[in-house]
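Tokens as discussed.
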């Protein structure tokens, strides 16, 4: 059985038989899987009136545990976006009443972002729905296959420099 990537690799083998396309196939499949999975995740989040980035921030605050609070800097690191982008995102979540923002009383240069009660009421069922969807999306892979794939992807991410910085908030 061939996938979409196989057809493209066959074309490259005809046009450029001098190039080893093995790695190209792996990267293309990772990218394609990401797009297909993300499409399903976005559709699920839309059912809950959330966007992917909103789930990321609310989920990060929720999984951090009580008091469900992080500095804006910690959220920047976790979300891997610029401080300007996180400010814009936090502004939008504050406007929806899903998070609050206050100056850190222990460090006036720092801003604390806290998951509001409304945000927690929203995120808890969404996390369950999200976990169920991901289980369904990977359902054709055995537990062993999923563990093997996770291990290979972990090794790739580590090789690409995505190791833990000692910060348990980094996904």
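Sequence:
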């Amino acid at each position: 059985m061939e996938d979409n990537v196989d057809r493209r690799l066959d074309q490259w083998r005809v046009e450029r038989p001098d190039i080893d396309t093995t790695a190209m196939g792996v990267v293309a499949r990772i990218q394609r899987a990401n797009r297909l999975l993300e499409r399903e995740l976005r559709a699920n989040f839309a059912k809950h009136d959330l966007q992917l980035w909103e789930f990321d921030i609310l989920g990060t605050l929720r999984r951090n545990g009580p008091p469900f609070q992080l500095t804006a800097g910690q959220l920047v690191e976790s979300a891997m976006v610029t401080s300007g982008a996180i400010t814009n995102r936090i502004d939008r979540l504050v406007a929806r009443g899903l998070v609050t923002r206050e100056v850190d009383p222990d460090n006036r240069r720092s801003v604390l972002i806290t998951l509001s009660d409304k945000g927690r009421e929203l995120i808890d069922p969404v996390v369950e729905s999200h976990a169920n969807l991901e289980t369904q999306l990977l359902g054709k892979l055995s537990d062993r296959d999923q563990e093997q794939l996770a291990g290979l992807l972990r090794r790739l991410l580590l090789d690409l420099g995505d190791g833990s910085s000692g910060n348990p908030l980094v996904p």
